[in-house]
Amino acid sequence: MDFRSLETLYRDELLENVVPFWLSKSQDMEFGGYFTCLDRQGNVFDTDKFVWLQGREVWLFSMLYNNVEKNPRWLECAEQGGEFMNKYGHDGNLNWYFSLTREGKPIIDPYNIFSYTFATMAFGQLSKATGSRENADIARRTFDIILSKVNNPKGRWEKAHPGTRSLKNFALPMILCNLALEIEHLLDENFLMRTIDTCIHEVMDIFYRPELDLVVENLTTDNQLSDTFEGRTLNPGHAIEAMWFIMDLGERLKRSDLIKKASEIAVRMAEYGWDSRYGGIFYFLDRKGHPPQQLEWDQKLWWVHIETLISMLKGYQLTGSVDCLKWFEKLHNYTWGRFKDKEFPEWFGYLNRQGEVLLPLKGGKWKGCFHVPRGLYKCWKILEKINQKS
């Protein structure tokens, strides 16, 4: 592969296509915050604002300002989104709503832990960009709330009847692996290390099951497999994304064993999740081969493929794995060939099993200014490191 042309490709796609799209199309100049429901051309088709997507966009523009260049337009974009979130996004005690009206009135009460995690990420990066103590305080206090909810992330919104089938989900320990490093500058070193150790243990020793050689989505609260719809569910994209978080922690801790294991699990999950008939990675699978409960199980989603690109490229960079490189090439060809819109900026998010565009939107309730630009940025920077070594 020509890594130098790939570095240019990922960088230019980020800075000349995707970032300008969100900068120009998503900002609500009247009420603040961001529109995320954008059609193929970037026109707004719904004005509801989803707090976790607001946080993701604040994070993205703050991160670019901190790591790429001190572009004042990026900082202004991040700051106005942060102001909207702080003013309307929570109940006054940093319990973050799920969704708001355009003007900022709550629609759905705090129930989703990811409103909290992305608020933490947002204000953590924004505090770096602005030096604001208030932003740092919001990030730290929200992180404390997340940790207090680890054992019951949905609180009173949990629908399961207590005591019958209590399950714990992979998503929270997975995202804490990333979140701990995101706000490292705000945490006490000892506390940070304890948090990291706990997250690594949960992901690599609990949810990764050596007897299956797979990462599962749900376990019983005493860490056992559950032969139920939820217990059999696999989300290959989730597992593969978590592996680059683990590789980041492996770098931070100088643990080559952890990096190697994570890269091998990423390859295993990609092999398991790949659709041998049409290409692409399935959204959900049942580990026993039963019909999955999710009707959208066979769709091909943007974030699954972009996160896999990061994991495979990082695995190759850090270990030299030929398998990782082969998978990166395979995913690169599929992802750029199917998800990139060749007529209008930004990328499609949802394909059917055959790889045809299912929804032509560029943003909605679940897709915002996050996985595409973050993935392009991460791959650009990994390719930069590969090229510096060669």
Give the helix/strand layout:
Blueprint: H1 3-25, E1 37-38, E2 44-46, E3 49-50, H2 51-67, H3 72-88, E4 99-100, E5 106-108, H4 113-130, H5 133-148, E6 167-169, H6 171-182, H7 189-207, E7 208-209, E8 214-215, E9 218-220, H8 229-232, E10 233-234, H9 236-253, H10 256-273, E11 285-286, E12 300-301, H11 302-319, H12 322-338, E13 350-351, E14 357-359, H13 371-389
Helix pairs in contact: 1-13, 2-3, 2-4, 3-4, 4-5, 4-6, 6-7, 6-9, 9-10, 9-11, 10-11, 11-12, 11-13
Can you summarize this structure?
This protein has 390 residues and is mainly alpha-helical.
CATH uppermost class of the largest domain: Mainly Alpha
Task: Indicate the overall shape.
Answer: globular
The end-to-end span amounts to: 13 Å
Largest sheet strand order? 3-4-5
Mean pLDDT: 96
Give the H and E element order: HEEEHHEEHHEHHEEEHEHHEEHHEEH
Q: Which percent bin holds the helix content? A: 55-70%
Strand portion: 5-15%
Task: Return residue spans where pLDDT drops below 50 for at least 5 consecutive residues.
Answer: none
* Cα radius of gyration in angstroms: 20 Å
Structural class: mainly alpha
Q: Could you say how many structural domains there are in total?
A: 2
Biggest sheet overview:
3 strands, antiparallel
Report on the structure:
Strand 1 and strand 2 form a beta hairpin. The chain has a three-stranded antiparallel beta sheet. A three-stranded antiparallel beta sheet has the order 12-13-14. The protein has two domains: 133 residues, Glycosyltransferase (Alpha/alpha barrel); 224 residues, Glycosyltransferase. The chain is built from 13 helices and 14 strands. The mean pLDDT is 96. Helix content is 55%, strand content 8%. The longest helix is centred in the N-terminal third of the chain and has 23 residues. The protein is globular, with a radius of gyration of 20 Å. With 390 residues, it is mainly alpha-helical. Helix 6 runs antiparallel to helix 7 and helix 6 runs parallel beside helix 9.
